[in-house]
Design goal:
Layout (H helix, E strand, L loop, with lengths): L10 E2 L3 H4 L15 H4 L3 E7 L5 H16 L4 E7 L6 E8 L2 H13 L1 H11 L3 E9 L10 H6 L7 E4 L5 H10 L12 E8 L2 E11 L2 E9 L8 H15 L4 E6 L3 H6 L3 E3 L6 H4 L2 H6 L5 E6 L4
Parallel strand pairs: 9-10
Antiparallel strand pairs: 1-5, 2-4, 2-5, 3-4, 6-7, 7-8, 8-9, 10-12, 11-12
Helix pairs in contact: 3-5, 4-5
Amino acid sequence: MLPASVHHVARVLRTDALAARGVGCGTLVPMRNDASVVRGPLVVLEYEVPGARRGELLDFFARAFPIYERPGGIRMSLHEDVDRPGRYVEIAAYADREAFDRDQVRVEQDPEMRATLEEFRSFAAGAITVHRAIPVQVAHRPSTDEAENAAPIGDTRIAPFRINHAADVCALLRDAGLPEPDSSDRAVEMLVSLVDGRVTGCIGWERDGDRALLRSTAVREDARRRGLGRALVDAARAQLRAEGVREVFLFTVSARDFFAQLGFAEIARTDVPNVVRESRQFAMHCCGDAACMRFVQSAS
């Protein structure tokens, strides 16, 4: 995982052209591992974006990512600071110095690029810190445990649930103390995160019109604290937004702070709409300590 700060490995360089960059998200649109791309210069940006604009930001990245990488020899990624939600580290990896130089000309002269960068500027709150770095070769051979257990978020694929994922998903939910979907539920749709074909996380929802109830969110213990939970929530919200869902609700006993960091706000049970009250989830939690939370989707 990328550290919260890269000051110790990069030389600070401040330029308006570099500070205006925007990228695709490292969890939803992973940075490739092409050796031809990661051997050249890196440009690293650090900045903050208000939590209320997170959904808009990810929608913007989905459009901007192909524009930034279009010339070739460039790979972009975005990482969110685990300890400071809303603080982002953005990386542009170039194949070589020539690719970097060509891109700076495009930043200054290409009308489409300039318009996209101008839109990006509206998201950053406060100053953007820019670093430039070159690769440093370090001789290191990973141990057997490292090779077997390492599963960085960049290698994770988020995909629709398939029947062959059922056993792994049920085990995840049991380990997390969450109920498994059953025949008394409304139709439950799910996404899973996969590393080398193995399920490392899951998220589900029940939808009724323009409202949805988020549920069955779990991450395998050895894959936690890598941003995977956020990636699953973001992927689910993006799909629901595309399908016209306006409000997303959930119940949680132990993850209030996690969901609050993602823009969910706690609400009174009396404010829960009837379509959510009719769910089995509501009946199971209504006498317990679960918090009711709501997220209002931005317009697509």
